[in-house]
From TrEMBL:
Species the sequence originates in: Tilletia caries
Alphabetized UniProt keyword annotations: Oxidoreductase
GO MF entries: oxidoreductase activity, acting on the CH-OH group of donors, NAD or NADP as acceptor
InterPro entries per UniProt: KR_dom, NAD(P)-bd_dom_sf, SDR_fam
Keyword check for Oxidoreductase: yes
Keyword check for Oxidoreductase: yes
Family per record: Belongs to the short-chain dehydrogenases/reductases (SDR) family.
SMART domains reported in the protein's UniProt record: PKS_KR
SUPFAM superfamilies, per the entry: NAD(P)-binding Rossmann-fold domains (SSF51735)
Ranges of residues in domain Ketoreductase: 14-207
Name the UniProt record assigns to this protein: Ketoreductase domain-containing protein
One Pfam family recorded for the sequence: adh_short
Length: 274
């Protein structure tokens, strides 16, 4: 990972908890925080992938040479299971008496069916992960942040929360719910020292589209055909930047596209080379 162009000294020895940290944006964010000298708790459902990401965090911290951080822990977590979220605080390592930064990264999209043909199981999975899981995580950690009167909550939203598109009605609805939840929470926290940031990416090349197309790699590849999409590292840079600002600065919302995108499925594609 390339060196950051901005100072991250304010993150030294801060404790960061990230959901969905076994790959994609979550993993890239964990690595950049480790490089910046933060302590990181990685959560996701796959223990083997978490352990591998933890080892990469250790290497990233050494590479960053910040002289800070270096503590990492992995916790298996399914954000759709309320009992696991409620029990998360009890599983935190001894060195994590408090979580300074919560990154609500877990989320997914399933299918491209239009209204009338959407599978009910897909509706439940998307709302349980993207909305209920995020709200449960926030509820648990915001209480402790209020007790300390400090903290930062980062949420991964989407351009889909602003603009709906055919074949994405449920996903768009979940991200619109997240956006409005964040707007309400921002107002609730205005009299505290707790900061809130929503990152709203456009096209990012991760396993997102593979999941949407139920493992069809060829269909997923067509989403990015003729484009230079954003990378997980691009989004991680935004997250780390927002959470490393001075205490009086609150980066409340970031909308980020690749240059060739102007909205959901509104792209300028280059023709394939012959």
């Amino acid at each position: 990972m390339s060196s950051s162009i901005f100072s991250t000294h304010r993150l030294h020895n801060k404790t960061v908890l990230i959901t969905g940290a076994s790959g994609g944006i979550g993993k890239s964010t964990a690595l950049l925080y480790a490089r910046a000298g933060a302590n990181v708790i990685l959560t996701a459902r796959r223990l083997d992938a978490l352990e591998a990401a933890k080892q990469e965090c250790e290497a990233a911290n050494a590479q960053g040479n910040s002289g800070a951080g270096g503590k990492y822990a992995v916790i298996t977590l399914d954000v759709t299971k309320r009992e696991e979220v409620d029990g998360l605080l009890a599983k935190l390592p001894d060195w994590a008496s408090s979580v300074d930064i919560l990154v609500n990264n877990s989320g997914l999209v399933l299918g491209v069916e239009r209204v009338g043909d959407i599978k009910y199981d897909d509706i439940d999975i998307m709302f349980n992960t993207n909305v209920r899981g995020l709200i449960h995580m926030t509820q648990v950690f915001v209480k402790h942040m209020k007790e300390r009167n400090s903290g930062h909550i980062v949420t991964l939203g989407s351009i889909a929360g602003r603009l709906g598109y055919p074949g994405g009605a449920i996903y768009c609805a979940t991200k619109a719910a997240v956006r409005n939840f964040n707007e309400a929470l921002l107002k609730e926290l205005v009299d505290t020292n707790i900061r809130l940031t929503e990152i709203q990416p456009g096209a990012v090349e991760t396993n997102f589209s593979v999941t949407r197309y139920r493992g069809d790699q060829a269909a997923a590849d067509k989403v990015y055909e003729g484009l230079t999409p954003l990378t997980p590292e691009d989004i991680a840079e935004d997250i780390v930047f927002a959470t490393s600002r001075p205490p009086h600065v609150n980066v409340t919302e970031v909308l980020i596209f690749p240059k060739a995108q102007a909205g959901p499925f509104h792209y300028s594609r280059k023709p394939a080379a012959k």
